[in-house]
Amino acid sequence: MGFAWSNMFVTPDEDPRIDGGFVGERDTLIGFLRDQRLTLELKCADLTPEQLASRSVEPSKMSLLGLVRHMADVEQGWFRMDMAGFAVSHHYRVDGDRDADFEGAVADPAVVEDAFATWKSEIAFAEDYVDSIDDLGYVGEGGNPLREVLVHMIEEYARHNGHADFLRERIDGRIGQ
Q: Is 88 left (phi over 0), alpha (psi -120 to 50) or beta?
């Protein structure tokens, strides 16, 4: 039998996530969202483009790379478009195809690089945007309070990180966290 952490992503001492202990509502929401984002990043770490693009099981089009592309669109949709009110096209929706983020997740290093750069860029925009607003009750251009958008984003990442758990375990056996 191997060491208890041998098939997990990081040991507790090396884990970049805080996972609780936040003080106050704002820090709690921002902290848990940050941890969920880091979880997806951990699930994708050290994989080849082929592994990132590998699909779960037919007929699903889900892959880790597809999840990164999807979350880039989700970040963009809620923070850049809904909250800030920018009229921009989604990164990965083609002609209204809501599954283009998954369908276009192919094992090409350029596609992988673009997906992670786009996702990180949307996270940076979201973090700057949230930092610029003091009141969690602030209602964005799309009519949604910032507090609800943050809760929704935590929920969205948590759901997809569950998918990422299974995808990663299927790729190389790494589990948990």
A: beta
Instruction: Provide the token pair at 139.
Output: 């209602």
CA angle, 135 as apex, 130 and 141 as ends, to 5°?
Answer: 65
Please report, for residues 55, 76, 87, the alpha-carbon distance to residue 161 in angstroms, rounded to integers and kept in the order given.
15, 18, 29
Handedness of CA 58, 61, 65, 68 (dihedral sign): negative
**What is the CATH number assigned to the segment(s) 36-41+49-172?**
1.20.120
How far is Cα 121 from Cα 32, in angstroms, rounded to an integer?
19
Number of residues in the chain: 177
Q: What is the pTM of this model?
A: 0.89
Residue pLDDT tens, the chain, 177 long = 444 445 556 666 666 666 677 889 999 999 999 999 999 999 999 999 999 999 987 788 999 999 999 999 999 999 999 999 999 999 998 777 778 889 999 999 999 999 999 999 999 999 999 999 999 999 999 999 999 999 999 999 999 999 999 999 999 888 766
* Gap between the Cα atoms of 1 and 9, Å rounded: 17
User: How do the domains of the chain map onto residue ranges?
Assistant: 36-41+49-172
The structure tokens listed for 32 are 């848990």
Q: How far is CA 31 from the centre of its chain?
A: 14
